[in-house]
Amino acid sequence: PMIISENKVVSLVYQLREGGDQGEVVETVEAQNPFVFLFGHGNVIPGFEDNLRSKKVGDSFAFLIASDEAY
Known about the structure:
The chain is mainly beta and 71 residues long. 10% of the residues lie in helices and 27% in strands. The chain is built from one helix and four strands. The strands form two sheets. Strands 1-4 form a two-stranded antiparallel sheet. A two-stranded antiparallel sheet has the order 2-3. The mean pLDDT is 92.
C-alpha cells in the first residue's frame, strides 16, 4: 500500500475537535470533499505532517496538536 511521505499527494477526511477526543467538533471534512495537499512542502502545520508521516491508505488515527503549534 502507498505510504505517506515527501512529494506524495495526500487526501484525507477528518474531524477537528477543540479539547481532545471528547471536545466540541470544530470542523468535519467528509469523503465527498476531502482535504488534499502535497506532503512535505510546508502546506500544513508541522505537527499535522509529523503525525501523518508513514501512515498507509485506510489507516485510522487520532492525535493532538497543542494550540500554540496550531494556526
